[in-house]
Amino acid sequence: MSQSARRVALLFGLAAVYYVAAKLGLRFAYINSSVTTIWPPAGIALAAFVLLGYGVWPAIFAGAFFANMTTTGSVFPSVGIAVGNTMEGLLAAYLVNRFARGGRVFDRVRDIIRFTLLAAIVSTALAATVGVAALALGGLVSADDAPRVWLTWWLGDGVGDIVVAPALILWIGVKLGPAWTRRQVVEAVALAVVAALVTLALFGGVFPTRHYPLTVLLWPVMIWVAFRFGPREAATTMLIVSAIAISRTLSGVGPFSVYATNESLVLLQVWTGITAAASLVLAAAVASQRDIQGTWR
Hints:
By secondary structure, the chain is mostly helical. Helix content is 76%, strand content 0%. The protein has two domains: 1-169, Arp2/3 complex 21 kDa subunit ARPC3 (Orthogonal Bundle), CATH 1.10.1760; 176-297. The protein is built from ten helices and no strands.
């Protein structure tokens, strides 16, 4: 296959992945058909631009446009949303590459903090602003609802960046270390199982008719993954936790499900974003300390 053919295949493949993730996220759009608190495509776009370069922007634009066009049936708002999503990803990747060492962002605590601030908080405001403006101009959102829609949009994109992008960048863009021993493989499987079981227990598995705020009990698991593994495994664990927490919250159980569905998801995603960022920071800090000890030995 020629280089041009591989490039076209890459763009089509990326657009398809973005489209599928977008349609999945839009299934949880409760306050507007184009706005959701669960938006994995933001993390996919950020990871794609960091790992593959800015030149893949047509794939992100196409995936975003067709996902929204097949949802709303309105051309102008779909174009505006696609422009906003693409610009957000480009801005986030530029900021990460410029100020947080690009694909090596998760090696150091200060770079993870910069990633959280610049990519998950600052750049996501761009897509939310452009997207809400496109919806308003297209008559798909009222002025009274615009602030609430903007906040939901911004939060969904921010959590997508902090939960999805780290796992993709760390698994695809970072060279794997030495092969795990059989003991490490067993421990990793045990960690994944325990993380899933603890999350199920916290989100209605123990007290299905109650909404006790027991999410702090997840921290022993996050400390385990930080001390025994590293940022890659910490990001993967958060993907597992996030998926289970979303599913259980939508089922009406867990500490955040006492409110209306969209409000419950907003509170859940705030917790998820904070937990994911803190987990990555802890894992990077432990890994850095481990390296320092190794140099002294």
